[in-house]
Design goal:
Length: 264
Amino acid sequence: MSQVRNDKPFTLAGRAYQSRLLVGTGKYKDLDETRAAIEASGAEIVTVAVRRTNIGQNPGEPNLLDVISPSRYTILPNTAGCYDAEDAVRTCRLARELLDGHKLVKLEVLADQKTLFPNVIETLKAAEVLVKDGFDVMVYTSDDPIIARRLAEMGCIAVMPLAGLIGTGLGICNPYNLRIILEEATVPVLVDAGVGTASDATIAMELGCEAVLMNSAIAHAQHPVMMAEAMKYAIEAGRLAYLAGRMPKKLYASASSPLDGLIR
């Protein structure tokens, strides 16, 4: 994203990024499509499900890092598929070993396979352990402002409330809770999960989110590479609109041109 006057850089764990779009690597038809979509998105941070993707733990199998090089992208290991704190902590520690001491992780602890809703009790437990263990924790959570506040107080570097359930494409289901979370935020707030199309990403940015993380919206599109590019511009448009400040909503019409000095 081009530099915008009066904008602040998007910063995580002391590193500044130009793009405010973070993308996942799952659900594509093959690694070539994965690579092409990520390139089209302009993303600089790419999240990887350690339990489902080979990043070196399975020698002899195709390695995702061959198409998303850590020298080009910031790799964000995530704990997708974990349903308790112990499993999530173990997965983060495995990622740290595989990635030569890498500390930045995305924590998600799920409640059940039907909803993939976050289990906030287990999430809080895992976050406490990981922060004490020196990880830079970005955490997927519910849109509960109290839980978001607590996670920030514990030392998580970013909170990522869901916009809608993972993989549903329902968009921003509860903008009001997101607004409260954003009002109280002391760390970056990113929408994670639920985005379905470009307008959803734009709305998240217009609300004031620092960034958006998505996977299914791109990978499940009829043309993933094209959708990835659309998301790139949607994020930029939403950020610019947020910085510009929208006009107030009014009940009645207001003439676009002044009425004074009309020709009689």
